[in-house]
Write a structure and sequence with these properties.
The complex is a heterodimer of chains A (388) and B (353).
Chain A: H1 7-23, H2 35-50, H3 69-81, H4 90-103, H5 106-118, E1 123-126, E2 142-146, E3 149-160, E4 167-173, E5 184-190, E6 196-201, E7 210-221, E8 225-226, H6 232-247, H7 251-267, H8 269-272, H9 276-304, H10 314-335, H11 354-361, H12 371-382
Parallel strand pairs in A: 1-4
Antiparallel strand pairs in A: 2-3, 3-7, 4-5, 5-8, 6-7
Chain B: H1 7-23, H2 26-33, H3 41-49, H4 68-80, H5 87-100, H6 105-112, E1 118-120, E2 128-129, E3 136-141, E4 144-149, E5 153-159, E6 166-172, E7 178-181, H7 183-222, E8 224-225, E9 228-229, H8 234-262, H9 268-294, H10 305-315, H11 322-333, H12 347-352
Parallel strand pairs in B: 1-3
Antiparallel strand pairs in B: 2-6, 3-4, 4-7, 5-6, 8-9
The chains are: A alpha+beta (388), B alpha+beta (353).
Bound molecules: flavin-adenine dinucleotide.
Residues 125-128, 133-134, 158-160, 210, 363, 366-367, 370, 372-373, 376 of chain A line the site of flavin-adenine dinucleotide (FAD).
Chain lengths: 388, 353
C-alpha cells in the first residue's frame, strides 16, 4: 500500500491542469438540452480531442492515451476542479466504445470511433420502452433481418440526448418467437434514417433532455449489428457493467459537490445552524464523498493489478446516487426560502446552480437501473441470497 | 499510488481467519463467560506462536517488526469473531506507544513471547478493559502516561451488556507505576494512542459488521415462511443490501486511516475520525437490520447474533463517541483554511512523500 502519487502521476496532474486552465471555456456553456448548447458541447468535444484529452482511457491505436485507471481518476479530478463542461458524448465514449472494442469488428471500430472522438457523431442509448423499464428483458421493438438489412419497428423511450444526437445504440428483438433475454440483438441505428420519429420529452426542468423514438420500417445495414444475432443481452450486459462500474460517475464529481456544499454552509452558517441536522449532513456529505473516492481508488488499484470488477460494484450506483440526492437536499435546506428561485430571478443572487443539480439528483436513483433493482442485484449476486 | 494489500498481508489475513474460525468459536466464547477471568490464556500463547502478539514489536526484540497496515486486517478479523482477548489493545495500542516511549527491550520481548498482556486506558478515569487479565496497564495520571503492574492496582469490575467485555475501574497508589512519558511527549503519545484506539475500534467494527451480515444472510436463506426462504423477500433483501453498501464503503476509509497512522501524516486525525464514523455506522446498521431479519430469534440469548451486536454497541462508543469524532472532523473540514474537494484526498500523503 502506497497512498502517495508518484512523481510521474504528479507531473501528469500538472499537465492536465495546465491544459484545462488554457482551454476550459471561461463562460459556462448553455445546457446541452438546447440546440445551441448541444452544439457548444460538440465543439468542446472537438477541442478535447484536438488536445488528445477526449478519450484518455482508450488505447493509443484509437487516438486515446491508454491511461490506467489511477491516471483516469487524476484526469477526472482535474476535469471537475476546472469546472469543465459535462461530456455530451459520454454514452459513446464511456459505454459504447469499450463495448465496441470488445465485440466490434475492425471495420466497425474504424468507422465509428474516430467520429465519436471528434464529437461529430453523438450517441444516445435505446434500451427502455414503454413496457420495458426495469424489466429490460420485456423489450418488444423488433428488427427483422431481410437480406443484409434489418427492418426495425417499435418504440424506445427516455433516450437521453436523443433529441439532438446522431446515433442510437440499443437492443431489438430479432427472433419474434423469443422470450425474455433470448432472441435480442444489439444494433446501432442512425437517428436520421428514414422512418424514425424523435419526439422530445421535457424533463423536470422543462428542457427536452430525453426523447421517445418511433421506428417505422427503418432500414439498418447488418454492418451495424454489434456481436452476433441473438447475443444482444450478453453485449448489453458488458455495457451495463461499465456503466454501473467505475466510469459512469467518477468520485471527483461528488467531491466537488461536497466542497461547494461546505462553502455554502460556511457562507450561511448562522442561519444554517438553526437546524443542527444541516451541519450533520454537511459533515456526512464530506465523509461519504471521501469514502466513495477511497473505495474507487482501491478498486482501480486492484483492477490495475489484473483484478476483475465483481458484483460488489453494484453498491456504487446506489451509494453515489443517494449521496448526490442528500447533498443537494442539504443545499436546498441551507438556501431556505431562496432555494426555489430559478437562477434568472432577480432575488436569486448567490443561489448558484443548486436547483438544477437538485432536480437532476432526483433522477439518479432511477436511471442506469433503479436503486431497488440494484439492491436486488446486491442481495442476490453479491450476498448470494435466494432469488424470488 | 497503490491502494492494495500485498500477497503477504493477504496470506497472513487468511491464516488468521482460519485460525480464529477454529479457535474462537461462539461456543468457546460462551464458555468463557462463566470463568472468572473470562479469558483464555492458552489461546494467547497460540497467538504468540503465530507471531501475532509480537507483530509490531521490533525484530531485535523478538517481534516481527511489522507495521500498522500489516495489522489492520487482523484487527478486522478480531472483530469478525468478537475475540474476547485484548489482542488489538496489546498489539496496536500498547506496543507502538511503548516503543515510542523507549520502554525497555525486555518488556517488548515478553509481549512478543506472549508472556505479557497489556490493557490500555483511553483517558484519565475511564474504565479499563481487561485490566485483570493484563499484566501491564497503560494509564493516565496528572497528564502523564504511566505504566503500571497489574498486581499493584486495585480493580473494581463493571459488568457490561456484552458478557465478553471485562471492564474495570482502576486505582493505584501514587508511588506505584513508572512514568512512561510526561510533558510534551505525554501529550503527543496520548494523542497518538487516541488515534490508535479509534483505529483499532474501527477495524473491529468493520469485522463485526461483516460477521453480522454473514449471519443474517445465512439465517434468512434457511428460515422459511410462506413456503419459501425469507431471504427471497425483497424487504429482507433490501435490509441486508443496505448493510452491504455501508460496509463496502467503510473498508477503504479504515485501511487508509491505518496508512495515515503508520506514516504519521498531518491529516491523521481527520482520517481516523472518518474511518471511525464510517465503520461505526456500518456496524450499528448491521446490528439493527440483523436483529430485524432474525425475527424473535434475534432477540434471544441463544442465538449467536447478540455476541456481535453487543460488541458493536459497546465499541461504537469506545475511543471517542461518534459525536466526538464528528466534532473533530468539523474542526478541520469547516475551517476556512483546510482545502477539500477533487484531488485533495491524498494530498498529505503526497506532500510527505
Ligand atoms: C434522467 C433519465 C435518463 C434516462 N436515460 C435513458 C436512456 O438514455 N436510455 C434508456 O434506454 N433509458 C433511459 N432512462 C430510463 C431508465 O433506464 C428507466 O427509467 C429505468 O430503468 C426504470 O424504468 P421505468 O422508468 O420504466 O420504471 P419502472 O420499471 O416502472 O419502475 C417504477 C418503480 O418500480 C420499481 N420496481 C420495478 N420493478 C421492480 C422490482 N422487480 N423490484 C423492486 N422494485 C421494482 C422501480 O425500482 C421504481 O421505483 C432514463 C431515465 C431517467 C430518469
Amino acid at each position: 500500500m502506497e497512498l502517495a502519487y508518484t512523481v510521474d502521476q504528479q507531473a501528469f496532474r500538472q499537465e492536465v491542469r495546465s491544459w484545462m486552465q488554457a482551454n476550459v471555456p471561461a463562460k459556462p456553456l448553455q445546457s446541452f438540452d438546447t440546440a445551441e448548447g448541444f452544439q457548444q458541447h460538440r465543439e468542446w468535444e472537438k477541442t478535447m480531442n484536438d488536445g488528445r484529452w477526449g478519450m484518455v482511457t482508450w488505447p493509443e491505436e484509437f487516438g486515446g492515451r491508454g491511461l490506467d485507471l489511477i491516471q483516469w481518476l487524476i484526469f477526472e479530478e482535474e476535469y471537475y476542479r476546472a469546472s469543465a463542461p459535462t461530456r455530451v458524448n459520454q454514452n459513446g465514449i464511456f459505454l459504447l466504445a469499450p463495448t465496441l472494442m470488445e465485440y466490434g469488428s475492425d471495420e466497425q471500430k474504424a468507422r465509428i470511433l474516430p467520429k465519436m472522438a471528434t464529437g461529430e457523431e453523438v450517441w444516445a442509448q435505446g434500451w427502455s420502452e414503454p413496457n420495458a423499464g426495469s424489466d429490460m428483458a420485456a423489450i418488444r421493438s423488433s428488427a427483422e433481418l431481410r437480406g443484409d438489412e434489418y427492418i426495425i419497428n417499435g418504440q424506445k423511450t427516455w433516450s437521453t440526448r436523443a433529441v439532438f444526437a446522431d446515433w442510437l445504440f440499443g437492443m431489438f428483438r430479432t427472433d419474434p418467437g423469443s422470450k425474455r433475454h433470448h432472441g435480442l440483438t444489439f444494433i446501432l441505428v442512425p437517428l436520421n434514417a428514414e422512418g424514425i420519429t424523435v419526439r422530445p420529452i421535457p424533463q423536470l426542468d422543462g428542457l427536452p433532455g430525453f426523447a421517445e423514438i418511433f421506428f417505422d420500417n427503418v432500414k439498418v445495414s447488418i454492418n451495424n449489428r454489434l456481436g452476433g444475432e441473438g447475443e444482444g443481452w450478453k453485449v448489453a450486459m458488458a455495457t451495463a457493467g461499465f456503466e454501473r462500474g467505475l466510469m459512469l460517475r467518477s468520485p471527483a464529481r461528488f467531491q466537488e459537490t461536497a466542497r461547494r456544499l461546505v462553502d455554502l454552509y460556511r457562507a450561511n452558517q448562522e442561519s444554517a445552524d438553526q437546524d443542527p441536522a444541516i451541519r450533520e449532513a454537511v459533515l456526512s456529505a464530506y465523509v461519504q464523498a471521501e469514502a466513495y473516492t477511497l473505495t474507487t481508488y482501491q478498486t482501480a488499484s486492484r483492477l490495475n493489478q489484473g483484478g476483475k470488477i465483481g458484483p460488489e460494484s453494484s453498491t456504487n450506483k446506489v451509494f453515489w446516487s443517494e449521496l448526490d440526492q442528500m447533498m443537494h437536499s442539504t443545499a436546498m435546506a441551507i438556501l431556505g426560502a431562496r432555494a426555489e428561485l430559478l437562477p434568472h430571478a432577480p432575488a436569486a443572487q448567490g443561489v448558484g446552480h443548486w436547483l438544477d443539480g437538485f432536480l437532476f439528483a432526483q433522477s439518479g436513483p432511477i436511471y442506469a437501473g433503479t436503486n431497488e433493482i440494484q439492491r436486488n442485484i446486491i442481495a442476490e449476486r453479491m450476498l448470494g441470497m435466494p432469488r424470488a | 499510488m497503490n491502494f492494495t494489500f500485498n500477497e503477504d498481508q493477504l496470506m497472513f489475513r487468511d491464516s488468521v481467519r482460519d485460525f480464529f474460525s477454529n479457535e474462537v468459536t461462539t461456543e468457546s466464547i460462551r464458555n468463557r463467560w462463566d470463568s472468572d477471568s473470562g479469558r483464555d490464556r492458552a489461546l494467547w500463547t497460540s497467538m504468540a506462536e503465530l507471531g501475532l502478539t509480537g507483530l509490531l514489536v521490533p525484530e531485535n526484540c523478538g517481534g516481527l517488526g511489522l507495521g500498522v497496515v500489516d495489522f489492520i486486517m487482523l484487527a478486522e478479523e478480531c472483530g469478525r469473531v468478537a475475540l474476547p482477548e485484548p489482542l488489538v489493545d496489546t498489539v496496536l495500542l500498547a506496543t507502538p506507544v511503548l516503543v515510542a516511549a523507549g520502554a525497555d527491550a525486555q518488556l517488548l520481548q515478553s509481549i512478543a513471547a506472549g508472556e505479557t498482556v497489556c490493557a490500555v486506558q483511553s483517558q484519565a478515569d475511564a474504565l479499563v478493559a481487561d485490566a485483570d487479565f493484563a499484566d501491564k496497564l497503560i494509564v493516565h495520571k496528572a497528564g502523564n502516561l504511566v505504566l503500571l503492574d497489574a498486581e499493584s492496582a486495585r480493580f473494581q469490575r463493571q459488568d457490561s451488556v456484552d458478557p465478553s467485555r471485562r471492564l474495570f475501574s482502576v486505582e493505584w497508589a501514587d508511588d506505584e507505576g513508572q512514568v512512561l512519558a510526561e510533558g510534551d511527549l505525554s501529550a503527543e503519545l496520548t494523542a497518538s494512542l487516541y488515534n490508535l484506539g479509534a483505529l483499532g475500534t474501527s477495524a473491529q467494527l468493520l469485522g463485526l459488521a461483516q460477521r453480522m451480515l454473514d449471519l443474517s444472510v445465512a439465517y434468512t436463506s434457511e428460515r422459511q415462511q410462506f413456503g419459501k426462504p425469507i431471504g427471497s423477500f425483497q424487504a429482507v433483501k433490501h435490509h441486508l443490501a443496505n448493510v452491504a453498501i455501508k460496509t463496502e464503503f467503510a473498508k477503504a476509509p479504515v485501511y487508509r486511516a491505518a496508512y495515515s497512522v503508520a506514516e504519521a501524516l498531518s491529516d491523521v486525525d481527520l482520517h481516523v475520525s472518518q474511518a471511525r464514523l464510517s465503520a461505526g455506522e456500518a456496524a450499528i446498521l448491521a446490528a439493527k437490520s440483523g436483529i430485524q431479519v432474525h425475527g424473535a430469534m434475534g432477540y434471544t440469548w441463544e442465538m449467536d447474533l447478540h455476541l456481535f451486536m453487543k460488541r458493536a454497541w459497546a465499541l461504537n462508543n469506545a475511543w471517542g463517541t461518534p459525536g466526538a469524532h464528528k466534532a473533530r472532523l468539523a474542526d478541520t473540514i469547516l475551517s476556512a483554511d483546510y482545502t477539500i474537494g477533487a484531488g485533495h484526498t491524498f494530498a498529505s500523503a503526497s506532500d510527505a512523500a
